[in-house]
Amino acid sequence: MTNSSKSEVSSVFLRLLTYLVPLKGVLFLSVFGLVLYGLVDATFIYSIKPFIDQGFASNVPTTPGLVEGVDLGMGGGFNSDSDVLKTAPFVVIGLFTLRGLANFLSTYGISYISARMIMDMRQQVFEHYLKLPVSYIDAESSGNLISRVTFDTEQIARASGSALITIVRDGITVIGMLGVMFYNSWKLSLCILIVGPLIGLVIAVVSRKFRKVSKQIQTAMGGVTSVTEQMIKGHKNVLVFGGQQAESQRFAKVNDDNRSRTMKLALAQAISQPLVMVIGSLALAFVLYASSLESMRADLTAGTFATILAAMLAMLQPIKSLTRVNAEFQRGIAACSTIFAVLDTPAEVDNGTYEKQRVEGRLSFDKVNFRYDNQEGLALKEVDFTVNPGETLALVGRSGSGKSTIASLITRFYSDLDSGDIRLDDVSLRDYKLASLRRQVALVSQQVTLINDTIAANIAYAYPGEVTEAQIIDAAKLANAWEFISNLPEGIDTQVGENGVMLSGGQRQRIAIARAILRDAPILILDEATSALDTESEKAIQTGLDNLRQNRTSIVIAHRLSTVENADQILVVDQGKVVERGTHSELLAKQGIYYNLYQMQFGS
Ligand code: ADP
């Protein structure tokens, strides 16, 4: 292990401990249970000697001190053989009841702690996602983002739970057994010390491997999630284009990748455990050999020998667990460092202080140059325009020309302009508090995102505060959605299904318009998606949109030129630049790009 990774492990670990602070009461009880468990086991082994030496072999001279050492609530020493053997059953029952209680306390307590930790971490990661800049989400695969919340958190909790159990309980057991051994015959017990460092070495070497492979497994798991997610999202497309084989091959690849990495971990684990066992047997063999020596035998009673042997055997299982826990622990640390990296990703920059309840809606771009982080060239070049309150500005142009980018900058999804400035009511967007800025904007986009709830809940989604049924119905009417909603058996209480699968494209769009109407923001961004709809739905939506645009500053990304004829300004965007501007009739008269686009869509 290199120094840096060592210090990384300990800092990750220390940070993990902070999650336990609020749970310290339960933690204390659990640890108490674990310690008790280990001690009971050691006590049990310790009581073997008096059972044997006094219960059976009463001819062996006893050292009074040793006998008094057995304080199992049985009073003083044993006076006769039968006394010892008669007490034995009670001791056994007593010890095992105690062990059972300790077991319950620790198992339940640790499950409680793990469940809390999973819940807290999930919540934290989820909430952090909500604060992260759009660029971060753009750059990450959604499979990875999801498996952070579902898989990685689980790994951490499982690892900390089993690590705690093993380290404390089995640690105490091993220490207790060692104590019993040395107390009985330190000479014989010394041989244990010979193998200790060997076992330590094996553990250290394997840890490194474990941690590395665990990280890889996490990534592979993200791949599995991500391919599955893509397939489910595009299920219809896959069926139509006969992509089943390609999809299943793609999945087979990530699936197999995940398997082979899991196997690497299993291999390391499978090798290390038997190795430790073999090393352990060396110690046992050494004890057996040593006790056959004349010089040793003088000190040994049958009871001492049996106790040492029993202690060594009783130690094997805990030692085995201690080596295995390492895999779990390393896996947890790996998952932890991924999670902490997410939590450490800076949230969206929100330095502005300017707040306004409701802006008038004067929006201006002042020679804006903008580049996406991961792109070479500028996505927007010298974009310059002003829209006055209540006016409509239409953006037209080929796909990929930069229209959506302009819209994304208005809501400050990307805040670093290369140069230039964007102002709302003559205040730079940078100076706004993000929440205050976004409160001014309603967005109706091509991909309507509906939540899996009722129509009413979907319309009220973005409304700040309590909303009445009458308000929802009014909004639905203005959005031209009331007609279809009122025909549904449960009206506005109809469930829309996941992302609105129960509704048609046009219906979804009108719900989104109703949502925007209810939100009543002074700025409206419309990414029109009417091109996929039949003429009737398009008309229905158009009426809704016209109602929505009333008295608002609207930025319309137009796919159909028919929808922008009465816009106050039309900008033709090409390769990030505004290449033409004017009203519909001005642009037609110019006979330039707009004119050509118009000719293409409507014929001459
Ligand atoms: P339009 O809305 O006109 O179709 P966009 O604004 O979506 O065009 O895209 C403009 C350019 O910016 C394109 O070249 C596109 O590849 C690029 N682009 C769009 N979104 C991103 C993004 N999130 N990250 C990097 N590049 C992007």
From TrEMBL:
<keyword id="KW-0067">ATP-binding</keyword>
<dbReference type="InterPro" id="IPR039421">
    <property type="entry name" value="Type_1_exporter"/>
</dbReference>
<keyword id="KW-0445">Lipid transport</keyword>
<feature type="domain" description="ABC transporter">
    <location>
        <begin position="363"/>
        <end position="600"/>
    </location>
</feature>
<feature type="transmembrane region" description="Helical">
    <location>
        <begin position="186"/>
        <end position="206"/>
    </location>
</feature>
<dbReference type="GO" id="GO:0034040">
    <property type="term" value="F:ATPase-coupled lipid transmembrane transporter activity"/>
</dbReference>
<dbReference type="GO" id="GO:0016887">
    <property type="term" value="F:ATP hydrolysis activity"/>
</dbReference>
<feature type="transmembrane region" description="Helical">
    <location>
        <begin position="161"/>
        <end position="180"/>
    </location>
</feature>
<dbReference type="InterPro" id="IPR003593">
    <property type="entry name" value="AAA+_ATPase"/>
</dbReference>
<dbReference type="GO" id="GO:0005524">
    <property type="term" value="F:ATP binding"/>
</dbReference>
<feature type="transmembrane region" description="Helical">
    <location>
        <begin position="265"/>
        <end position="290"/>
    </location>
</feature>
<keyword id="KW-0472">Membrane</keyword>
<dbReference type="InterPro" id="IPR011527">
    <property type="entry name" value="ABC1_TM_dom"/>
</dbReference>
<feature type="domain" description="ABC transmembrane type-1">
    <location>
        <begin position="28"/>
        <end position="331"/>
    </location>
</feature>
<dbReference type="GO" id="GO:0015421">
    <property type="term" value="F:ABC-type oligopeptide transporter activity"/>
</dbReference>
<keyword id="KW-0547">Nucleotide-binding</keyword>
<keyword id="KW-0813">Transport</keyword>
<keyword id="KW-1133">Transmembrane helix</keyword>
<protein>
    <submittedName>
        <fullName>Lipid A export permease/ATP-binding protein MsbA</fullName>
    </submittedName>
</protein>
<dbReference type="InterPro" id="IPR003439">
    <property type="entry name" value="ABC_transporter-like_ATP-bd"/>
</dbReference>
<dbReference type="Pfam" id="PF00005">
    <property type="entry name" value="ABC_tran"/>
</dbReference>
<keyword id="KW-1278">Translocase</keyword>
<dbReference type="Pfam" id="PF00664">
    <property type="entry name" value="ABC_membrane"/>
</dbReference>
<feature type="transmembrane region" description="Helical">
    <location>
        <begin position="12"/>
        <end position="40"/>
    </location>
</feature>
<keyword id="KW-0812">Transmembrane</keyword>
<dbReference type="InterPro" id="IPR027417">
    <property type="entry name" value="P-loop_NTPase"/>
</dbReference>
<feature type="transmembrane region" description="Helical">
    <location>
        <begin position="90"/>
        <end position="113"/>
    </location>
</feature>
<dbReference type="InterPro" id="IPR011917">
    <property type="entry name" value="ABC_transpr_lipidA"/>
</dbReference>
<keyword id="KW-1003">Cell membrane</keyword>
<dbReference type="InterPro" id="IPR017871">
    <property type="entry name" value="ABC_transporter-like_CS"/>
</dbReference>
<dbReference type="GO" id="GO:0005886">
    <property type="term" value="C:plasma membrane"/>
</dbReference>
<dbReference type="InterPro" id="IPR036640">
    <property type="entry name" value="ABC1_TM_sf"/>
</dbReference>
